Amino acid sequence: MTTSRLRRGIALAAAASVALGLAACSSGSDDAGSDGDLGTITLGYIPSWTDGLSTAYLLQDQLEKIGYDVEMKELTEAAPLYTGLANGDVDIYPSAWPEVTHAAYMKKYGDDIEDLDTYYDNAKLTIAVPSYTDIDSIDELAGNAKKFDGKIYGIEPGAGLTGVTKDSMMPEYGLDGDYELVTSSTAAMLTELQKAIDDKKDIVVTLWTPFWANSSFDVKTLKDPKGAMGESEGLHFLATKGFSDEFPEAADYIKNIKLDDDQYGSLEDTVVNQYDKGEEADAIDAWLAKNPKAYTGILED
Predict the structure, then answer these.
(1) What is the residue-wise DSSP string for 74-111?
(2) Exposed (0-12), middle (13-18) or buried (19+): which is 188, by Cβ within 10 Å?
(3) β-bridge mates for residue 289, sequence order
(4) Where a domain ends, among 199, 221, 243?
(5) Same domain, yes or no, for 164 and 114?
(6) For the chain, N or C: smaller number of CB within 10 Å?
(7) What three-state secondary structure class fits 240?
């Protein structure tokens, strides 16, 4: 991956941190091929979380081909996204982690949310270091705080990954007294990671899979012998309660979407790294051309 594309990926993540709350924007697809006669569906997503970004644009493309209008709403944190789902401001969250990472949000808002099923079943929260760093397991962080300046670089304060790192991983491995979890944004974490790798310095960051940064940065995932970061979980399409009754065609279609590691990885890489901002429709077309049978009922035209 070129430096310019890597910077574009970081810049894309940075865009999510500029505005607070909801920032509505129109879908603007020139190739929708639909008059929206089946109604309007609002997709809520966090641009810096590129698993959801890529699936949001995929859903936009497919739902517009079925005959829906699609509106995109950018959010900066998981909490307002789940609130939006619960109160109906958002119709679909296209990449939720409700089993482990977002379990607290589901406990609070789940009665007002409809689960449209799992489309990917191998998501995982991770702790990572540069590949040249001479440790391979989270338990080796204990006693090595000086090597990392006593810091673990995380993402947004309200992210489920932040909560698991702070409330589970750090106390489980006895890191609370020696390390500070530095939170800000996904873009800020990636910037720190890139700077450290450029300078061949050691750094610890919070990551997850699927995420394009795992292959674009020279990093390795640390082993988690205590399982403090949680088990693998499924990624779900979540909808506001009553979505299937209001939009039955969309619900039936979405429930059939299933992606494996290669398909998901290529989708995210195509949207985030191979095309520039504003070219998302072209990115989806390119991905569809290479993955004509990625899931049941795919619409190519």
Answers:
(1) E-SSHHHHHHHHHHTS-SEEEEE-TTTTTHHHHHHHGG
(2) buried
(3) none
(4) 221
(5) no
(6) C
(7) strand
Residues 208, 99 share a domain: no
User: Is 274 a member of any domain?
Assistant: yes
In this structure, is residue 86 part of a structural domain? yes
Q: Quote the number of domains for the chain.
A: 2
Closest CA relative to residue 48, chosen from 23, 85, 84, 83: 23
Pair of tokens at residue 160: 């489920």
Distance (Å, whole) CA 83 – CA 32: 29
Rounded to an integer, what distance in angstroms lies between the CA atom of residue 14 and that of residue 74? 13
Residues 86 and 180 occupy one common structural domain: no
CATH number at residue 164: 3.40.190.100
- Domain termination site, one of 221, 246, 265: 221
Report the alpha-carbon distance of residue 56 to residue 119 in Å, rounded.
Answer: 13
Could you report the per-residue pLDDT of 109-120, keeping only the tens digit for each?
999 999 999 999
Q: How far is Cα 27 from Cα 71, in angstroms, rounded to an integer?
A: 5
- Please give the backbone phi and psi of residue 69, each rounded to the nearest 5 degrees, phi first: -85, 145
Cα angle: 159, vertex 165, 170; to 5 degrees: 155
Model pLDDT for residues 174-197, shown as the tens digit of each residue: 999 999 999 999 999 999 999 999
Range of the domain at 190: 124-221
